[in-house]
Design a protein that fits this description.
It is built from nine helices and eight strands. The protein has about 230 residues and is an alpha/beta fold. The protein has three domains: about 45 residues, 434 Repressor (Amino-terminal Domain), CATH 1.10.260; about 80 residues, Response regulator (Rossmann fold, 3-Layer(aba) Sandwich), CATH 3.40.50.2300; about 80 residues, Rossmann fold. The strands form two sheets. The protein has a five-stranded parallel β-sheet with strand order 2-1-3-4-5, with helices on one face. It holds the Pfam family LacI.
Length: about 230
Amino acid sequence: MVTLSDVAKEANVSKMTVSRVINHPEQVTQELRKLVEQAMTTLDYHPNYIAQALVNNRTNVVKFVTLENIDTTEPYYMTLLFGFARGLAKKQYAFQLVTDPSKIEQGNADGYLITGARSKDYEYFDKLDKPFVLFGENHRGYDFVDNDNQLGEKKATKYALSRLYKHLIFIGIDVKEPFEYSREAGYINTLQQNQMIPQIYRVSNHSHEAQKVIKEHFNSFKKRYVFYLC
């Protein structure tokens, strides 16, 4: 069995350096990290992450918390879940799905990934004693990941105009949140720059609700229209 000492010898560094590369890579230079990682690859060395977790008082578990109802027919959520799972697996972490916000702190975890957050939840986040990252833009200063909602809608609207669509209909989520304001702004500003009138429908956060709107108003929509489901 390949040991830490074997890796240190192969890389011509100390065992402490190898340990730092594995447990605290931010504490070593990029060149040194590459040297040790190459030695680990050459020797086919795989750290014992379970032992590391015990030593460092970690669980190697991250909770994925959804604060809204997940409709299992929505491809968005499945893509999101698989993306989180793959990303965590690369770092030897497991994830636990939490669908009841009241149970977020039940059981041990090293941190939280939170989706579906709304402004009303911010006060609760301030009380969490573990690090967390929100999936979705916010103006509270919390760490978050998201795309550029306004730029995305701007590009989508410009593309539709380049395809000579005359009526661009925006179907968004009926929430007063930063990410939704950004999406609508990208759509509205681009239409106004082209002297066109925005047409917006707001529904709950499920694609089947958008389908209802389209079916209910289909006959009233003019020719050459395109929908944005945001």
